Amino acid sequence: MSETLAVGAPEAPQRPPRPTGRPSKRLRLARLRDLALVPPIIALLIYGYTLKPDVFLTKSYLVDTVLKYQTELALVVLAEALVLIVGKFDLSLESVVGIAPAVAVFLVVGQTSMLGAPWPTWTVLPVALAFGALIGVFNGLLVVRFKLSAFIVTLAMLIALRGLQLAIVGGATISNLANRIPTIDNLGSLRILTVPLSIWIVVVAFAVGVVVLGYTRFGRSIYAVGGNADAARAAGIRVERVIWVTFIVAGALAALAGLMLSARLGSVAANQGNGMIFTVFAAAVIGGISLDGGKGSLVGALTGVVLLGLIQNVLTLAQVKPDQIQAVNGLVILVALVLARLTSGKAQD
Amino acid sequence: MVDDESKPVVEAVGVAKRFGPTVALADGTLTVLPGETHALVGRNGAGKSTLVGVLTGLLKPDAGQVRFAGRPAPPLGDRVAWRQQVACVYQKPSVVGELSVAENLFLDRQPRGRFGLLSRSRLRRAANDLLESWSVPVDADTPAKELTVEQRQLVEIAGALSHGARFVILDEPTAQLEARAIARLFDRLTGLQQQGVTFLFISHHLPEIYEICQRVTVFRDARHIVTAPVAELDHARLVEAMIGDAHGLVQVGKDRPPVPDEAEPALTLDAVGVPDLTEPIDLTIRQGEIVGVAGSAASGKRQLAEAVVGLRPRTGRVRVAGVTVRPASVPAALRAGIGYLPADRNADGFVPGLSVAENATMTVADRLGPAGVVLPKRRDAQGRRAIADLDVHAAGPHQPVGELSGGNAQKVVMARALARDPRVLVLVHPTVGVDVRSKESLLGVVDAETRAGRGALLVSDELDDLRVCDRVVVMVAGRVVAEHGRGWDEATLVAEIEGIGEKHV
């Protein structure tokens, strides 16, 4: 609550309006914040190398054993980062990761004649993206138009969509998709210049994201709305529209991530995406995205994903027992948060 | 005071404080005598807030000493001991809004009843006793969020006194108050002073200092400049001490040329009303004209301005240079040529985490590159231009506005209003909470910009702001009750604003 200010909290001391550093220096410092996670990443790479010196630092290992498994997470982190920067929450993204491919695949290969199914196989990608976007439209409607708390709205949406997915998939798993749907096959196994398509998708998505956030009117509006929505409104920014569009883009990105996950596994499981949102938030916050909105960068968020991916991989290499790996993983995330806090020198919020 | 009468209540000598490379305070020296009301003045960034931080034990000074009644200040961690010496009432509320006044007063030291559990009845009784003994007319059961600014300040003062402190720092207590509330506050302060309470009074409003303070200390550029009885430091010398040069302040707008009768209208309000708040109002602002709108907080003047710029629904018709503006849309108002400076810059004036350039160009993001692209080069160039044109003291276009002092942040908000080259400016409280020099410079900008043919609607109850205007209309309870040309009489205007002396119903 904004009115519950701490008793006796002082105003921030006003700094004299004296220039204290050259602009170029400030700029370099701001960029450095994006790279705060590079030292721990390097440390993990070195540690991984000592565990498995023959293969760890080879391209094929890093690409096929470390990064490939982080591509879906990376896209969802990108989606969540956008929503967080605009000052909102979207917990339902993890359910979209499951439901969007489930719906799209179901309409193609499901045992149903609903809506004229079976649909042609090429519809999988557009239907999944459209369904993800539709969830974004609905979230946006409740948050923007009805002014409900994004946290609760998307939490309810998470639960509802999870249930819907169970109903569609029926507790079983829709499997053997690669042979039945060419799009899924391509997403899962196509390589360009020896690198899996999914990694290219992530690279392109983040590149586009960085350009949009940094160099377009819409991207800068996202930061302005997250930083101070009232000021943005008074400056003529259509605050509601910016928030709404962000929810829609996030939903579509999560749907794409879900399709990529299904492609990698060749199936849609009933629990696909389940529990993913915690890792998503961890990666985003470790990467410097503020939960208060208006702060953070996509490059930072991406380093957060890479860091978490390396941690998981190194834990496996270090032969942590499978039944302990989750506990260790959680602890390591805590340590990573503390490290990120120390290296950036800024409070996380 | 029970203590030795001759010893100063608080004495700071050579206090210094740095934040990183920034020297916030180089020579903080202050002596406050028992029973006086001592003014502390200086421009934004002069070091006042830092000194207050040190005096209240929230900041650790790098050098220098603080003594209370001759004894060294308690160690930094001992909050209880600090509270017995000194308390500060800030501009921002430091009460918990959801709790009652009584609960706030006895936060973390609630009286206990049976079984060591908290006793509500005792709490209420203790709180009412406390409020009564300092004559604070507030019921202890009131939720703190329902208090007016005035009541909240009195409650905070009473709370401070109940910890044993007889020295209270008031940080711009009048900034959010209306004239009548200020008068009431001053009455109370005088009463408390007679009961032995000492005040350190911080304000940008120099007349107030002459009204209730006995001595004044001036800070400039992080240093103590002078301490003197107010009677020995007249207004001109006080301002000189604050801004550091002898030529003093210019009366902005004194030499404005009269607006020619044939000047085209820049902004026309035809029966514009804000539902439930104002009656339909007709007003025309001609090109090159500044029209002031004065009135109390309840007059609806601010809401009228917000309706004109599209932030609120309205009735009636608004035209800019003859063209009708679509209601309830800020983008439409912007495109029509209305530049807007909001009433409270911290609330909706700027985005603190974003840079000067970014804030200053927020209204022209569509002009910074093709097809929705924002070219950083163009943005930074415009940011630099704003910094130069408006004399913003910033490290550069990349510095976050949240790091700037109030006056400089306000200049950035002004740059944002001017960025689209508007035909008319709508300015609400443009100089609130800024120091004398920034005020002069902000009003100077309004003066200069309107000479180039823009019109301006200036909503304010500051006489200094209104003096720049070519015409002033007064609003009371949602309607225009009076209009004045240049050379209006202060007493008449104030009486009209307060709704006294004029028959207007």
From TrEMBL, chain A:
GO cellular component: plasma membrane
Topology of the protein relative to the lipid bilayer: Multi-pass membrane protein
Subcellular location per the Swiss-Prot or TrEMBL entry: Cell membrane
This protein's UniProt keywords: Cell inner membrane, Cell membrane, Membrane, Transmembrane, Transmembrane helix, Transport
GO molecular function term, any single one: transmembrane transporter activity
Region of interest (Disordered), ranges: 1-23
Top-level taxon: Bacteria
KW Endoplasmic reticulum (keyword) present: no
InterPro entries per the UniProt record, alphabetical: ABC_transp_permease (IPR001851)
Entry annotated with the keyword Transmembrane helix: yes
Major place of residence: membrane
Regions crossing the membrane: 32-49, 69-89, 96-117, 123-144, 151-172, 192-215, 242-261, 273-291, 298-318, 324-343
Name assigned to this protein: Autoinducer 2 import system permease protein LsrD
TrEMBL record, chain B:
Pfam families: ABC_tran
UniProt-listed PROSITE patterns: ABC_TRANSPORTER_1 (PS00211), ABC_TRANSPORTER_2 (PS50893)
Domain ABC transporter: 10-246, 261-502
Cross-referenced Gene3D superfamilies: P-loop containing nucleotide triphosphate hydrolases
Molecular function terms from GO: ATP binding; ATP hydrolysis activity
Cross-referenced SMART domains: AAA (SM00382)
rRNA-binding found in the keyword field: no
UniProtKB keywords: ATP-binding, Nucleotide-binding, Repeat, Transport
Superkingdom of the organism of origin: Bacteria
Name used for this protein in its record: Multidrug ABC transporter ATP-binding protein
Organism: Micromonospora acroterricola
